[in-house]
Specification:
single chain, 308 residues, mainly alpha, two-stranded antiparallel ribbon
């Protein structure tokens, strides 16, 4: 008896599998077209301007734009200020990401331990911080730490201490505001992931005598690793390209540019100095750094056996 299926059956199955494989892409096609228009074309224009000599003279039509190739990048990489700003951006973004994840995950665990009313109050307070516009939140934090009228200095007995005068205190103030408006996303996402973990697993760990920290480190964190990957990547992208908080709270980058980050630095080059090509080159460098960090992190997770 022939155990092999007829050739026509095999061909039909193959065509059905191909058709089934194309179906998800057909559903995604409208969204991909929109994303292509909103993302691909602006990135193309950004890269194009970064390769041109494009200043106020070219914008006003006084001179034609000339092709420079990698000349703008050579100028940028030979500028010591660029490397100083890049280092400050990396350190600041890393601190923001770590603090945001720590606060968000801690509060997510707390939500599973409190009753309904405190949980609802904490949720509403966090979502209120998340929904607050960045300009509004930055202005409120500036008032709280104002040397003349702010309540923080009075409570701490610091007198007329200016938080935005020193480089590190200004970065600390901005970090607090960034964490305040960013942790709700981490908290809500991780809390949803914790609620999806079977209660029997957590009860078994508690019966074995595991502390809350041990349960999080050995049980919850490994099970929530895909969710933590998403919130980490989102936090890296958001915190690496912080602009509004730095610009508003340090008045455009601090005294003598001591609190500049890449986005504010690009804004100053493009609009304050009318060097649009250099500003675009900084934008391209920022985009490449974020792509490298994201792909590297995803590759690390895949090596550890995680399916994302």
């Amino acid at each position: 008896m022939d155990r092999h299926p007829p050739a026509t059956t095999t061909v039909t199955r193959t065509r059905g599998a191909r058709r089934a494989g194309r179906t998800p892409w057909l559903y995604l096609a409208p969204a991909l077209v929109v994303l292509g228009g909103l993302l691909v074309y602006p990135v193309y224009q950004l890269g194009l301007i970064s390769a041109l000599e494009y200043t106020q003279a070219q914008v006003s039509g006084g001179k034609p734009a000339s092709f420079r190739g990698l000349g703008n990048y050579t100028t940028l990489f030979s500028d010591d200020q660029f490397w100083s700003v890049l280092l400050a951006t990396v350190v600041f973004a890393a601190a923001c990401v770590l603090c945001t994840l720590a606060v968000g995950c801690a509060l997510a665990v707390l939500l599973t331990r409190v009753r309904a009313v405190p949980r609802l109050a904490l949720m509403l307070a966090a979502l209120g911080a998340w929904a607050t516009p960045a300009v509004t939140g930055s202005t409120v934090w500036l008032f709280l730490f104002d040397p003349d009228f702010g309540p923080v200095n009075r409570l701490l007995g610091l007198g007329d201490h200016s938080w935005t005068y020193g480089r590190y205190s200004a970065f600390l103030l901005v970090l607090l505001e960034v964490v305040w408006c960013s942790f709700p996303f981490v908290m809500v996402t991780v809390y949803a992931g914790i609620r999806a973990v079977p209660a029997e697993v957590l009860e078994a760990a508690a019966l074995d005598g595991a502390s809350q920290w041990r349960i999080w480190r050995s049980v919850l964190a490994p099970m929530l690793r895909p969710i933590l990957a998403v919130v980490t990547i989102q936090s890296v992208i958001w915190d690496f390209k912080v602009f509004t908080q730095i610009y508003v709270m340090t008045n455009g980058g601090g005294i003598a540019g001591q609190n500049l980050v890449l986005n504010v630095y690009a804004y100053q080059k493009a609009f304050a100095s009318s060097e649009y090509s250099l500003g675009s080159a900084i934008g391209v460098v920022t985009l490449l750094i974020l792509l490298a960090v994201t792909l590297g992190y995803l590759r690390l997770l895949r090596r550890q056996g995680e399916e994302l």
